[in-house]
Amino acid sequence: MPRAAADEKLSAAGSHRRSVWVRLLAALVIAVLGGMLGKAYGDAFYGPDDFDYQLGFRIGFSIAFVSALIEIFYIRNYRRSWIRRVAYLPGLVVRVLVLTLLIRLCIVANQALSFWLGDASAWQDFTFANQLRDTLLSVVVVIAFIMISQFTSIIGMRRFLHLVSGRYYRPAVEERIFMFVDLVGSSALARRLGDLRFHDFLAEVFFQLDRSSIGYSGEVVSYVGDAVIYTWPLRDDPQRNRSCLKALRAMHRQMDMVADAFEVEFGERPHLRAAIHAGPVVVGECGDSRRQITFLGDAVNMTARIETLTKTLDVDYLISQQALERIELPANVEAIDAGQHELRGSQEPFTMHRLLLK
């Protein structure tokens, strides 16, 4: 496989239907919010709009939808897109210039559409001063959207919303599912590839894991070394709790799909290990200069111990009995008894099950 083809496969493989629909839904939500903002702006500066034409809503919707599609489906969906390979500030300038052009096209096209539909007043407001104000304010809103998008990509959308809403300003006890996913043989990989190439390898693995798991309602708690920690709410309905296993299977399949491309690019094939456990934890905000939401409790600690056990038993995927009792297995996942094991920090032995992903 040529290197260019490997790059293409690493960027495009596994963009399965579920994650596409999730991203498209997010773009539509952003577009509707943009339309509402455009409607309010139009009413404030141009007076109430005729319902038959809804020029303000259409302009706001189209600007927000185009901006969201570019941000979600190109810039954030392709780790190797050229815009992500340049420094942040030059990349931001290019994005703003491109979006300014698209904003102008959206404004002019929607005004032309209103005129074509019979709104004779559509061109009366088409003055230089109005167009300059409309464009500048639209650019400011789009820049704010880009900045928020960048911020949420650092801490995660759910954590961003939780911090803004103050949901965990006071600590709360919640039941949670935790899944630790790490790279098999990472130390040896780092020695063979060298630190910089190993970082590229690991970043690509994390990117592929993220894009394959995005449609299964999981939340990335943190990246720790070569591991990713995911969490899901532990619900009363076992069927709703199986999202974690569906996500794991999607990750497994994704790694299989891109393994050849990894071998061409890096000379190595990625192989995953995962541990799943569930139980109560305390969730709350911590820190001052850098605030974050933390999960504290035995459920987190025992998941880490189970991840260590996967190495001892030389198996890929383990799940505890406590978690398995609360999760309905998907049809393509099988759990096999792996016996009882003593885990450091626990007074009672844990019954473990090995997961087979079909």
What does this structure look like?
- The chain is of the alpha+beta class and 358 residues long.
- The chain has two domains: 3-155, no CATH class; 171-357, 2-Layer Sandwich (Alpha-Beta Plaits).
- The protein is 58% helix and 18% strand.
- It contains 13 helices and eight strands.
- Strands 1, 2, 3, 4, 5, 6, 7 and 8 form an eight-stranded mixed β-sheet that branches.
- Helix 6 (128-155) crosses helix 7 and helix 9 runs antiparallel to helix 11 (243-266).
- It is elongated and about 80 Å long.
Shape descriptor reads elongated
Number of domains: 2
Instruction: Name the beta content range.
Output: 15-25%
Rg calculated over all Cα atoms: 24 Å
Terminal CA distance reads 27 Å
The overall pLDDT, averaged over residues, is: 84
Summing up helix and strand content along with how strands pair, one would put the structural category as: alpha+beta
Task: Quickly name the level 1 CATH class of the largest domain.
Answer: Alpha Beta
Q: Could you outline the blueprint of secondary structure elements for this entry?
A:
Blueprint: H1 3-12, H2 17-46, H3 55-75, H4 82-85, H5 88-117, H6 128-155, H7 157-165, E1 172-183, H8 186-193, H9 195-213, E2 219-224, E3 227-233, H10 238-241, H11 243-266, E4 272-286, E5 292-296, H12 298-313, E6 317-320, H13 321-324, E7 333-341, E8 350-357
Parallel strand pairs: 4-6
Antiparallel strand pairs: 1-3, 1-4, 2-3, 4-5, 6-8, 7-8
Helix pairs in contact: 1-11, 2-3, 3-5, 3-6, 5-6, 6-7, 8-9, 9-11
